[in-house]
Design goal:
Blueprint lengths: L7 E5 L4 H12 L3 E6 L2 H13 L4 E5 L5 H15 L4 E4 L17 H29 L3 E6 L12 H21 L4 E6 L33 H5 L4 H13 L4 E2 L6 H12 L9 H6 L8
Parallel strand pairs: 1-2, 1-4, 2-3, 4-5, 5-6, 6-7
Length: 289
Amino acid sequence: MKNFKGKTAVITGGASGIGLALANEAADRQMNVVLADIQEDALKAAVEHFESRQTQVLGVVTDTSIKDSIENLYQEATERFGNIHLLFNNAGVVNGGAPVPVWELPEQDWNWVMGVNFYGVLYGVQTFAPHMVGHGEEGHIVNTASIASFIPGSYPYGISKYSVIILSEALAFDLEASSGNIGASVVCPGWVNTNIGDAERNRPDAFRSAANPAGAGLGINELLAGSKSPEDLAAHVFESVEQDRFYIFPHSGWDYLVTEHAEAMVKREGPYRFDLQAHIATRAEGKDI
């Protein structure tokens, strides 16, 4: 996708973090901006921010884990702006609380994380892709996965994000076979300076977990604070969209992880083991992690 001016971008998880940065990049390109987020106060503030920028903006309270909510987002977005050209299936959550064995993690944790991170992307594709292919104009769909997809033991977050990679590959093939003009990308960020470690703040009551009754976050904000900014990440993503790149890995300091994980698989070894402390130490060497 090369031309953005006057086109419309829809961003889930658009009221903060990576989503807000993507929305600012879209606004810089004079796009109409549709922000979808479950956190109403943050969404209101984000809409006011874009109104102050004289951007054509619409905010829609959206729970991406519910298909009806995504369909409502689609209806409101198309009623306001007509054709949608750029879709960021970006909303994501990670469960907090003390780690437990995979067999002890409550169903509520799986349902919440998979609901937002995987089904939210799937519902976005199911709802928006037919429209985007059908209107015949240039466009692009970007799904947000994570480098955690390649870190064993990062469940259920990593499991949901790896699913997004496989889904995105299928999407790319199907879009290529369609008669439309829509590209696809999957972005796998490393550490980004956001508040995702506090995602428990937005966990719906229906998904409250016995493993984390207090709704405690992950306590990783200090670690993330020294990492890539959402603004730098968003600029990288838009550059990748312009160049029609499918795989977007913005942090070169994680490349070895993907390579070593794949090598362990084809050697029939495993499971691949990730040394977190050794990885953190690479930051002092100037590695982009």
